[in-house]
Amino acid sequence: MKPKKSAGERIADSIIYLVLGIVALITLFPIIYVTIMSFCDTNRYIPENFSLGAYEYIFSTNTFLRSIGVSVYITIVGTLLSMLLTSFMAYALSCKQLRGRSLILFLVVFTMMFNGGMIPTFLVVKGTGLFNSLWSLMIPNAISAYNMILMKNYFQELPEELKESARIDGCHEIRIVFQIILPISLPIMATIGLFYAVSKWNIFMEALLYINKNQLWPVQVLLRNIIFVLTGGLGDAGSEIYKMSFSDESMKAAVIVVSSLPIVIVYPFLQKYFTKGLLMGSVKG
Amino acid sequence: MARNSMTLAKEPLWKSILRDRWLYVLLLPGLLYFIIYKYLPMFGLIMSFQDYKPMFGVLKSPWVGFKHFERFFSDPSFFMLFRNTLIIAFYNLILYFPFTIILALLLNEVTHMKYKRVVQTVTYMPHFFSWVVIASLTYKLLSTEVGMVNGILELMGYEPVNFLTSAQWFRPIIVFQGIWRDLGWGSIIFLSAIAAIDIQMYEVAIVEGANRMQRLWYVTLPSIKGTIITILILRLGRFLDLGFEQIYVQLNAMNREVGEIFDTYIYTMGVVGGQYSYNVAVGMFKSIIGIILVIGANTLAHKLGEEGVY
Amino acid sequence: MKKSLRIMSLSLCLAFLLSLGTACSSETEPSSTADPSSGNTSAGETSVSEESSGEPTPISMYLVFDGVEYPAPGNDIQKIIEEYTNTQLEISAYGNYGDLYPTMLASGDFPDVMTTLDLPITKDAVRSGMFWDIMPYLDSTNNLKDYHPTTLENSTVDGKLIGIPKVRPLVRRTFVYRKDWADQLGLSVPTNVEEFYQFLKAYATSDLDGNGQQDTYGLIADKTVINHMCFLFGAPNVWEIKDGQAIRNFTTPEYLEGLKFMKKLVDEKILHPEWSTVSRNQFYNVFEDGTGGVMWDSTNAIQMLGARVEAKDANASVDAFTLLTDTKGQQRTMGEAGHLGWLSIPSVVPEEKVGKIVEFFDKTADEEMASLLVWGVEGQHYNVENGNAVPIDEAAQNYEDTIRYPYKLPFSAVNYEDYARPGIYNKYQQRALDIDREMLEYMVPNPIFPLDSQTYFEMGKTLDQIIEDASIKFVSGALDEAGFLAEVERWRTTGGDKVAQEYMDSYNAIHGGK
């Protein structure tokens, strides 16, 4: 059922490809530049002095492996926990007959504008016994109001007959969520999962505030420390890294690469869930 | 609230609760979460009516009424800050936000899957660049000393342009950086909304002879309208929250009159200066503007027959 | 059936992962609960274990850390320190302490020793009684009693000592220059402002890096140089108390002279044109690349700049000059705070422990400990030749990573070099130490450090910003003299005059003036 493309369509196609190509190039250029910078000196326009020194330095730090382990752990467990709580709440709120639904939604949106700030949140985190535990990086930010509302919207637009037929079959709601809803919601699950994973991976300030054991800090703390030291720190130390075989710029670039690569490569794997037709297949099947 | 809805509802409250008991079970963990970690800390907001001293805590710090708000509104810089914040926020809204939708729509038209994925991934990557690095890339590109752009201008016989220390270039640079960094990131949610469209609708449209523009106009856009409106409303709630770090690292004496915003202004006073109460008061001001915009936009959406966010 | 199986396995997976979480956190839990001195336990508990003297005193601390990785607890160096001082340390070390500090202070979650920063909130906290006054404890110490009176004065609020000062030199601003270029051009070190100008100009107008172009700058400095430049023309060291009035430097005609001088340097392309926007750290690359002849910095940077320049060019070397006779013929240098924050003891710590904590820092200045902090471990980091400690080059990095960054710099309770055994310093280090000592007698202190102004507390940053921006605009030509004076007037009316008055009142209260 593929209609032949008219000349007009083909021109439109080439314009679209061209525009996207240009956008991609504009975006790509600095990315490539930073990647090159992480291997070379770029104080002048032309890169010179190829060196792996910056990466060797990062990987040779004693805490690198352990802290990346912490990051991976809080990203995986934290994302699973968030997805579970978020999808439960989003599903419940997507059912229009639920009493108090509108009020609850408003109160959720309200928290996006009003929050108590760092100090009271810190006190609550401490009060709920999470201080100095990795849970402090996963529980206090378990549900993002933004993500929850997006998910709720998605659930709401699913065909009502689906849920109805499930209820008639005698499934109770928790089983409906797992059995019917989640499998046909892969695009939104992939999206929100990505949003959560990225936010957990980037956790930094909370780690310093809620955990005073250096050994439990995620990798972002280590990487930011390297940058912080490069930019002079608070005191008189000067820069420890000046004696190394790479420049400050290389180090900053390498930190970008190391801190973003693991989470960047997640995205292409999720992209297949953004393909049209998934929904159809499941509904029919 | 419960009582009100009981009088309005067709069936008794207990009956509907009993019927939906499993829904409430699903709702419970989320509710607890919001109560404990979002609403409990809000007691901190009363700090804005106090002279908060860490030693005494919220309970014993002295009350000062609206002192901090008065100080804020009577600050000679207030209107400059309000203006600068509004202008940048407005540019972001009319430029960045539509661009993310357009990117998603364009990507949707691409049938070559590899090309689509590459563009998608490439545009997503800059989201992980910290502002410090983006600022230093901008410096390498635009400075008068080492900047590539000025190098090219000079080769072509033009005078170098002071991009980084001029008032008129500041906002374009800030807005462009924002678009560059988050264009792909912002389009993800629309891509997923498009992915959820029932493919049958396109098939029907094609059979009826709809061309590309018509399919876009009559199928794609209406299907993701709900998502667009939701995100627009949620963005309005944070309308005045601009990227603090982005602007802070690029402010200087020459662009401060157009670049200083609420967040950068209170950072030096409130956070570094430790004026906790003042800080909370300014935050509260931004929140109130945000909630007014959200309620307004949501009411409008309801009037237009849309679902809105609540 | 199949589906329910899938659900079951899914939930099992989840349960497993969640239990992993508990396992992981419970694994780490004991270390935090077993140790009574961990930050979140109350002070009451700790006093129990203290009753039996001879037992090591547990001390928990939040320290500022400028290195990359803090060594794990129980490392060899920490053991030596703990053994000597009979303590058991639990250290949390933070890189970007400045961002965390206000929240930590406000949250009231305190260790036994909290690094406090020189910010208005610290003084506010001390005034409300959040920290012990350390002053009464100093007399009974062996080493800490010898603080320079200015350092001590700059560390007090209402006569209370905020904490043990993390000392650094009171005089430290210096001009680091390319010695090899000066020799090449036959230049001698300038002694006054006119010679200084000629010196810079010679650098700027000669092709020193030999690339056939005049593209070197005479002076590299960031925007904080303004006060120093104006000081060379006789302006006060930021503030001055004179004739019963507190005078801010930019209200004086000398300050304007200094700005005009800077404008001349900018116009003649002697000062690096990006001085007002680029940070000092970015300028290190510029200096290292040989794009500038003189870099304005502090004495502790001499060693770093020397090493960086030499790494790029084996024939290069640096030196520094500081004392320039100002245009009025006075020999003087700018005094600074003399400390980089304090090691404060929160008032929740029981009184009997306060003495022990002060004793701990006092002991770090004993010769044995000071030598450890300055030189490292004998045989491992240094050898002794003719009674002098001689560092082992290969161990230098190890010393930095395991001693200097984690312990020496975060403690800094005294200038440890003064208490350590004698030894052979690197030439640049020695130069920095010499400058710090020689310049002390020419110091003009900034009088407002111990003083207090509520207006400054509330809007000081805004006020400072007005003048900084106006000065930069004047130097770059965006503002003329009338425009600058109008900004000074704006500063006065916005709150500057009030700040000056409050400082004066505070000064009178302390010195019992009229």
Considering the protein shown, what is the CATH homologous superfamily of chain B? Answer: MetI-like
How is the main sheet of chain B built?
none
What is the helix fraction of residues of chain B, given as a range? over 70%
CATH class of the largest domain in chain C: Alpha Beta
User: What percent strand of chain C?
Assistant: 5-15%
Oligomerization? heterotrimer
**What composes the largest sheet of chain C?**
5 strands, mixed
Protein architecture, described:
The complex is a heterotrimer of chains A (285), B (310) and C (514). With 285 residues, chain A is an all-alpha fold. Chain A has helices spanning 7-39, 53-60, 64-94, 101-113, 118-127, 145-157, 160-168, 173-181, 186-201, 205-210, 219-230, 248-264, 266-270, 278-284. Chain A has two domains: 7-39; 57-284, Orthogonal Bundle (MetI-like fold). Chain A is built from 14 helices and no strands. Chain A is flat. With 310 residues, chain B is mainly α. Chain B has one domain: MetI-like fold (Orthogonal Bundle), CATH 1.10.3720.10. Helices cover 71% and strands 0% of the residues of chain B. Residues 1-7 of chain B have low confidence and may be disordered. Chain C has a five-stranded mixed beta sheet, with helices on both faces. The model of chain C is unreliable at 1-52 (pLDDT under 50). Chain C folds into three domains: 53-168 and 338-419, D-Maltodextrin-Binding Protein, domain 2 (3-Layer(aba) Sandwich), CATH 3.40.190; 172-334, Periplasmic binding protein-like II (D-Maltodextrin-Binding Protein, domain 2); 451-514. Chain C has 514 residues and is an alpha/beta fold. Classes of the chains: A mainly alpha (285), B mainly alpha (310), C alpha/beta (514). Chains in contact: A-B, A-C, B-C. At the A-B interface, helix 1, helix 3, helix 4, helix 5 and helix 6 of A face helix 2, helix 3, helix 6, helix 7 and helix 8 of B.
Layout of strands and helices, then pairs:
The complex is a heterotrimer of chains A (285), B (310) and C (514).
Chain A: H1 7-39, H2 53-60, H3 64-94, H4 101-113, H5 118-127, H6 145-157, H7 160-168, H8 173-181, H9 186-201, H10 205-210, H11 219-230, H12 248-264, H13 266-270, H14 278-284
Chain B: H1 2-8, H2 13-19, H3 21-39, H4 57-60, H5 67-73, H6 78-109, H7 113-124, H8 131-142, H9 148-155, H10 167-195, H11 199-207, H12 212-237, H13 244-248, H14 256-259, H15 262-272, H16 276-303
Chain C: H1 2-34, H2 43-50, E1 57-64, H3 76-85, E2 87-94, H4 97-107, E3 113-116, H5 120-127, H6 135-138, H7 149-153, E4 156-157, E5 160-161, E6 164-167, E7 173-178, H8 179-185, H9 193-205, E8 217-220, H10 226-231, E9 239-242, E10 245-248, H11 253-267, H12 280-288, E11 292-298, H13 301-312, E12 318-321, E13 333-334, E14 339-344, H14 351-363, H15 367-375, E15 382-385, E16 388-391, H16 396-411, H17 427-439, E17 443-444, H18 454-475, H19 481-511
Parallel strand pairs in C: 1-2, 1-3, 8-11, 13-17
Antiparallel strand pairs in C: 3-14, 4-5, 6-14, 7-11, 7-12, 9-10, 15-16
